[in-house]
Amino acid sequence: MTEEYTSLSYTASIHYDRRLYKEDIAGSIAHARMLGDRGVISSEEAKTIITGLEIIRSEIAEEIFPWNQDLEDLHMNIESRLHELIGETAGKLHTARSRNDQIATDMRLYVRGVADEAAVQIRILQRALVFQAEQHVHTAIPGYTHLQRAQPIVLAHHLLAYFQMFERDLERFSQTRTRANVLPLGSGALAGSPYPLDRESVAKELEFDGITKNSMDAVSDRDFVLDYLYAASACMAHLSRLGEEFVLWSSEEFGFLRLGEGDTTGSSIMPQKRNPDLAELARGRTGRVYGHLMGILTVIKGLPLAYNRDLQEDKEALFDTVDTLLSTLAAVARMVDGASFNVERMHQAADGGGYSLATELADYLARKGVPFRQAHGIVRNLTLYAAEAAKRFDEMTLEEYRRFSPHFDDDILGITVDSALDARRVPGGTAPSQVEAALKRAKDQLGL
Ligand code: ARG
Predict the structure, then answer these.
(1) Closest Cα to atom 2, ligand 1: which residue?
(2) C-alpha 149: how far from chain center
(3) CA–centroid distance, residue 94 to ligand 1 (Å)
(4) What digits encode the pLDDT tens for the residues 103-143?
(5) Cα 433 to Cα 431: distance, rounded to the nearest angstrom
(6) Which of 30, 193, 268, 306 is 20 to 30 A from residue 342's alpha carbon, by CA?
């Protein structure tokens, strides 16, 4: 046994739970005030405790707080310091409270705060997407299925697809906030409290929407942590997909975009390279966030009611998720902002040697009354013929078209990428007129 692996170091959480000091002190101040108001302690005592806690808060903020590693957690560190500052009265703060309802309160306050921070960062990223989209309402690019060129779309439409994904993420964080925003204090260790507490007033001071309804559940519930981890996982999935597309698009093979100077790194041996590291790390760090979600689901699954020490494991998983998510959102927003798109190259690819309009030709026949299935077959044969003859669709004569169907008329020669785009005017479609409307809605949502 090495010296480092003591029981105290095994159970201690002080090296990470100190991150919750603001929440912990806010909860203690509200608790002390209420104890004073209800006469559980005297109002003088409440005042002394609150003043002491405020001093501690500034000591921690100024990084002059004497952290003691021998006291296992944040709560004990604060209480012990309070003792040094105000003496015996410090011991009264923990009246009608347990570390179990205390930590549950801290964690709910914390999750509420970081859910709000995620929402702010998501908005910044959405703004970057909208900023780019505004400049590319008429930029044709290939739309893909199976990563095969399928139909032309406009770049703004593609970027606004991500706007929608992040809009849903925002909603998930807001729901996470709502479910987290309930006060557990007053639940005691698990059974409630024999003192005449006013839980509602504590809830009000801490800006909770209400109080928890079952003391057993309140001290052992970490669903709100799962909610955050899931919202973060879904958001990371979206960031990862965007990262992956930027990796592809910035490759020489695609050549659709050039990443900003600060968002790439050179290779140490191949001077021509610009590696999309930032996009790759956004993709790569998604894994650890999923891992934390699985981790906490697993921690919770076998626990008998009520509080168990296993629950302490929620913190590092959550903190790492918060850091990963917020830094990735910021990095990806910068990356989107700094990207410059190669409009020429995208248009060429959208045109796809003329064959990207195959669906458009089938729709043309369908509009003339040919059943779509049959039209599809006709255009398939026509495409094989064109490829064989090394001709683009727009290089074929009407006479050649007619060999495949008598329904082709000379207006077939007017079908272009732009006409195909304009035609997709259904709500939610890629027609520039629809995309303009979508952009306007997006800007309204962002308050732009
Ligand atoms: N450090 C603990 C946690 O994070 C605080 C609660 C401790 N409660 C207890 N009965 N030991 O969950």
Answers:
(1) 312
(2) 29
(3) 14
(4) 999 999 999 999 999 999 999 999 999 999 999 999 999 99
(5) 5
(6) 268
